[in-house]
Write a structure and sequence with these properties.
CATH superfamily of the largest domain in chain A: PurM-like C-terminal domain
Strand order of the largest sheet of chain A: 8-10-7-11-9-12-13
Largest sheet of chain A: 7 strands, mixed
CATH class of the largest domain in chain A: Alpha Beta
Structural class of chain A: alpha+beta
Mean pLDDT of chain A: 94
Low-confidence stretches of chain A: none
Number of helices of chain A: 10
Number of domains of chain A: 2
Oligomer: homodimer
Radius of gyration of chain A: 20 Å
Strand content of chain A: 15-25%
Chain lengths: ~350, ~350
Amino acid sequence: MTRFNGLDEFGLIAHLTARYRAALQKQEPAAGGVLVDIGDDAAVLAAVAGEELLMTTDTMVEGVHFLPETMGFADVGYKAVAASVSDIAAMGGTPRYVVLSIAIADAVSLPDLEALYDGVAAICSDARCALVGGDVVHTPGPFVITSTVLGGVPAGTAVKRSGARPGDVVFVTGTVGASGAGLALLQASGVLLPADEAAALRTCHQRPLPQVGAGQILRSCGATSLDDISDGLASELNEIARASQVRLRIDTARIPLLPALQNFARSRSEDPYEYAWYGGEDYQLVGTASPFAFARALAQCESIGVKLTQIGRVEPGDGEVVAQFPDGRIDLVEPRGYNHFK
Amino acid sequence: MTRFNGLDEFGLIAHLTARYRAALQKQEPAAGGVLVDIGDDAAVLAAVAGEELLMTTDTMVEGVHFLPETMGFADVGYKAVAASVSDIAAMGGTPRYVVLSIAIADAVSLPDLEALYDGVAAICSDARCALVGGDVVHTPGPFVITSTVLGGVPAGTAVKRSGARPGDVVFVTGTVGASGAGLALLQASGVLLPADEAAALRTCHQRPLPQVGAGQILRSCGATSLDDISDGLASELNEIARASQVRLRIDTARIPLLPALQNFARSRSEDPYEYAWYGGEDYQLVGTASPFAFARALAQCESIGVKLTQIGRVEPGDGEVVAQFPDGRIDLVEPRGYNHFK
């Protein structure tokens, strides 16, 4: 069978590994730590003295997590690894090593897979980590990709979800909701936005950049909780509130939205905040810190070009999230968001 | 939707995590190293001073890697993690932490998933490692499971495939071919073997025990190369020969076969060695060592109940494997075995 130009499983792995290496835009910063690379039974990796390890995994299924119409294979490769890198960022850590497993559907071509590994190289360059292994199998069903990322964090400093305390500031990095709006835009017909605004929303959906630098700053400044926005602000805030057993009071007018998102929602007579609360896949960070720690982190994040915005405060409570609207109305925010099997 | 007794994604993860913990037969030896467990963005894990890290991943797809008729869900959970643990064993390492991703097909029930996590608990008990995270998603296609295992090995001692030297002994642990014969038996009709022999072959296929202890002994005794038998003896020996740029001469009469395998093959008028060469999924170890190192490892492996058998020797060469038969005939062994896309 000559499905992949006659490449068998081992040939395909070698081909895609070479493709990944050629596509790397920068030196892999972790490369010095890779002692035995792709090709043996397991990768051998240097540990960093004084660090604890962070490990996380994410799976994306075609037709469930992405559609061919909204995500090219390069985007899929980028975003699959970005989702795991974002989990490392949400602990305040440094992503270092990636292993990638793909189950290849019948309709997938060699150029598709090459594009996938170009996308993986792009996120590995952006997040300064290295692909060190994986598995490549066939599936009669839809394409499935699983990314597992190993990272490090100075011992005893990982930022959990459970440390929010009354009096803390609630903050987010960047803006929220653009990824969900980008998806809606990709599925919409007609011209709804100027080209640059449309491109900005699409990029937020297809190539979300995990906030590794901001996570490290927030950790070193003493953030008390941190989570990444994969399922939407409503879901993540509820996770922090529940894990910390506090009430988070959110001032909705302070939630930072991209102007392109506001224009997009206006063009469809939608509430732009719906995308922020329930859209998900922004891969921004949301968390809490003392006012003093927040002020320090704000300045340091600004120095790396990341905007940190206070969106509320922490109060005594029992694990709930309330939204306070400009008209004075207050609502309980349910933890709904993207959720399998619901 | 009440597909899993009304559990949503988060409830399902909590339910299966509890199931895993309840099913653990022994204390997780790595549990002391788990600083932040399942439930936050990423697991936080202690590194062991003086060790390097080992990382490997394996994916199994229903209908490709296993069939409902031959593998129950508990077997699937066991074997998926065992495949990755075996890769750690093949580096001479210690498996410590597991993350597991499952893409759940429509036909899968909650009892199926509970059985899966019972199997995961069984292999984690057997291999003394801990499940520390994962992902649970829906797929419209076949069930897919991806296991990623993180292990450790004393710095600078990981056993690669590339160190075989002329004069070395070629060895295997245990017996070879029983997994492939077990699969054939599970797919056959009629009574072909006594019940105890049939059960032995089935167990070799459904619950292969990775050779972690033997791998550690072989590493500490100075084995020059090591590989685990996932694709069959022919494929793994060729990998060692090619990586080490030597010739491996195998004395076929010395390849250790389970009596049950010999009886099974005889009952079907098959060559039992075909299962050893090309069956795969034995998850035994194959490798090379100096005669002195081999003698030391032989005694130590015997003390933990693992048989080590010399099956050949290493000669100068260019990466080939030759088989020498009892009748004096010599054949080149092609690296075929289980291979996707071929």
